[in-house]
From TrEMBL, chain A:
It comes from the Bacteria. It comes from Nocardioides mangrovicus. This is Uncharacterized protein.
From TrEMBL, chain B:
This is Sigma-70 family RNA polymerase sigma factor. GO terms for molecular function: DNA binding; sigma factor activity. It comes from the Bacteria. Keywords: DNA-binding, Sigma factor, Transcription, Transcription regulation. Residues 23-84 form the RNA polymerase sigma-70 region domain. PANTHER family: RNA POLYMERASE ECF-TYPE SIGMA FACTO, RNA POLYMERASE SIGMA FACTOR HI_1459-RELATED. Belongs to the sigma-70 factor family. ECF subfamily. GO terms for biological process: DNA-templated transcription initiation. Pfam families: Sigma70_r2 (PF04542). The lineage of its organism: Bacteria, Bacillati, Actinomycetota, Actinomycetes, Propionibacteriales. The keyword Lyase does not apply.
Length: 144, 190
């Protein structure tokens, strides 16, 4: 192949790659900036069942589990067959909210031992917000 | 003159939305390309794209070296895509006896970065060409290729001039792409 033919092939690939960018993708990426929070402490994603490859399969469903950690607080969540279960560690009074990128936030009831379990139907990007007293902590965004 | 990567990251961190939009414009092809080549399309691809940019927003304050940003984006997009593929309920169940699938993203991420960089330089270079040369090249890259007679009819130019014009347009494209790439390297080592 001549240099010119090679360049034509490269250009074809470059133009095709440019066409992979949709207006929808651009809007979502731009809109992400409005979710910028400066005052909240971030809980990092420290454990992800899919990233570590330890996916468990029960029947036809896949169980997804995430672990988040901030300095003084941990959160474990697991989605199995449409039911979200998990625990806030250490236990104590707190308020837990699920925030969907495309849905209204909703409060998750946490019992005195820090456990919770509820039907969960949010799709797309989700983050969890834990409020303990005056402190407000947000997890990284994940999608189940 | 385009704003440098470092400047854009610092401005976005300070709350400048136009700087964020510029970052999106610059790296969206990298993110979308990475997601597409893991094999995701449609709603799944949109979800991953959204997650990647939301992660960047929260990660923005932690970016110490702006030059590392493209690598971070490609790695995050790839990992998130691989994860979604694994959890895809329509996917064939993984053979669990073969052990966990390793997410080896090193070489793939490097390939994506190179491809995105080169692609961006070529698309920018193409935009800089005179309109007639740009239109000619866009016709010539079509797959399957068009016959010169067809190109001649579409552009209203004699068949005999297509070959020489193609050669000159490609030469100009090559030089412009090299200049775009050079400007980028200079900016990043500044």
């Amino acid at each position: 192949m001549s240099d010119d033919d090679a360049l034509i092939a490269e250009l074809r690939e470059a133009v095709a790659d440019g066409a992979l960018v949709t207006d929808r993708a651009r809007e979502a990426a731009r809109a992400a900036f409005t979710w910028r929070t400066i005052d909240e402490e971030l809980m990092d994603l420290v454990h992800d069942s899919a990233a570590t490859g330890e996916l468990r399969v029960r029947g036809a469903e896949t169980v997804r589990a995430f672990g988040f950690q901030a300095r003084d607080l941990g959160l474990e969540v697991e989605l199995d067959d449409g039911v979200l279960t998990g625990q806030v560690i250490p236990t104590g009074r707190c308020r837990l909210t699920a925030v969907g990128r495309d849905a209204e936030p909703f409060v998750i009831e946490v019992d005195d031992s820090g456990f919770f379990s509820l039907p969960f139907t949010l799709t797309g990007a989700v983050r969890f917000v834990v409020e303990v007293g005056e402190d407000r902590l947000s997890t990284s965004w994940v999608s189940f | 003159m385009e704003r440098g990567l470092r400047e854009l990251v610092l401005a976005a961190r300070a709350g400048d939305e136009s700087a964020w939009d510029a970052l999106v414009e610059r790296f969206l092809p990298l993110v979308c390309g990475t997601i597409a080549r893991v094999g995701l399309r449609g709603a799944e691809a949109d979800d991953v794209n959204q997650t990647v940019w939301l992660r960047l927003v929260e990660h923005l304050d932690g970016v110490r070296e702006p030059a590392a940003l493209p690598g971070w984006l490609a790695t995050t997009a790839r990992r998130e895509s691989v994860r979604v593929r694994h959890s895809d309920r329509r996917a064939v169940p993984v053979d669990l006896s073969s052990g966990p699938e390793v997410v080896a993203d090193g070489p793939d991420v490097d390939a994506e970065l190179l491809r995105a960089e080169r692609g961006r330089a070529l698309r920018e270079a193409l935009d800089q060409l005179p309109e007639d040369r740009r239109r000619l090249l866009l016709l010539l890259i079509e797959d399957p290729p068009r016959a010169y007679a067809e190109v001649s009819a579409l552009l209203g130019i004699p068949i005999g001039t297509i070959g020489p014009t193609r050669a000159r347009a490609l030469e100009q494209l090559r030089n412009a792409a090299a200049l775009v790439a050079l400007a980028e390297t200079t900016e990043e080592t500044r």
